[in-house]
Structures are given as C-alpha cells and as structure tokens.
Amino acid sequence: TWVNALLELVDADQLPALFGGRCLCDGHDQVSCMRSTKGPWADPAVMAMVEESGFANVLTPGGAKLLHERRQAAAEAAEEAEAAEAASEAQVTAEEGAITPRGGKAPPVSEDLDEDEGRDSVSPNLFVSAHLPLRSRSAVVQSELDKAEVHRAQQDSNAIHAEYNELERVHMTTLAEWVAEFNQLVEDIGWSVIERAQGYYDSRSVWQQVVQEFAKQQ
C-alpha cells in the first residue's frame, strides 16, 4: 500500500499519523515531525519547494511532478559538471605524462644517462618504447595507467548516477501515486470523516507494531 511505501522512505515517528506514521502533532505544526534524516524531508530541494509553494501544494500530483522536474534538472547539471571535471583531469594527466612537446623534439638527455644507455638515439615516436630511455618508458606506462584509472572512475561514477536516477524515479512515482490516492480518498469520503477515523487507525497501527515485535521474538 501507499502507507508501506511511504514508511520505507520516512521514519514512522517523523511522519504524521494521518499519513500512517506515529507523530501526533495535532496539526499545530505541519512540518514538526518532518525532520527525518532520510527520505524527501532531508532533501534541500523538497524543503525549498515546501517553503516556496506551501505544504498543501507540494502534496498534489502537480506539485510532485514539478518537484521531480526540478530534482532531475539539478541531477543533470551535477552530472555535466562531473563529466567536465573528469575530462579536465584526464587532459592534465595526459599532459603531465607526455615526454615530448608538440613540436616532436625529444627532451634533453643527461650525459650520465646517455652514457648508461650507450648513447643510443632517442626515437621521436612515443609508441616505440624499445628505443626510449628507461625513464621515458616508465613515463609512458604511468600515463597509460593513469588514463585507464580515470576511465574506470568515470564508469563507476556513471553507474552510481544511473542507480540514483532509477531510485529517484521510483520514489517520485510512488509519491505521486500516494498523493493521488490520498486526494481521491478525501474527495470520496471527506476530510471530516478522515479526521474522525484517525484515532482508530492510529490505535490499529500501534497494535500491528506490537504484533510484529512479538512475532520477531518468537
């Protein structure tokens, strides 16, 4: 049900009893129980929209859709920034690992190193590592390793971001369905009926929790 789906996102003691939680603030402060460290109330975008549009407007299908669009735009902007930063780091790594300038001239070789190498000529082709000094070959290998590491890190980042987007989509879909169901319930039976039945459902929720705790101990 929508109550179980909501309780997977918000702590029960920080969710109004009207919505299936255990908070009994009696409506004096609509957000007094919505200080959870997980779920939508911990998201700055959600709280900013609550302050901007009002709590009642957020808990509507239109409000849920607008919130989803805002959070999706923020996620896309963050993804573009991460991609640009990764590309910049890869370029810096490649430049630091290069052993010849763009003109194709090889760097000067010290006399000691030249003697140790038997005064072998240094090939301008960076890919012919057999003709490069030992230090140059090490630089080429290190540069390739750095590029591979950056590529793997970018793949991991993309996978994590994709997983986050999927969880976000499921959450917003659940929230929109819950809001629609709640509004339909209010339209069908009226708000006054829901208020009168609140005490019954609160006691039933507590009873179910006691039964579940007893079952866990058996």
SSE run: HHHHHHH
Biggest sheet statistics: none
The end-to-end distance, rounded to whole angstroms, is 26 Å
Seen as an oligomer or otherwise, the chain set is single chain
Q: Quick check: average pLDDT? A: 69
Counting helices, strands and paired strands, the structural category is mainly alpha
> What is the strand tally?
0
Number of folding domains? Answer: 1
Runs in which pLDDT lies below 50 for 5 or more consecutive residues are 118-135
- The percentage of residues in β strands lies in under 5%
Residues in helices, as a percent range: 55-70%
Number of helices: 7
Rg, rounded, reads 30 Å
Overall shape: it is elongated
Biased composition (Low complexity): 84-96
InterPro entries: CRAL-TRIO_dom_sf, PI/PC_transfer
Organism: Polarella glacialis
Region (Disordered): 79-122
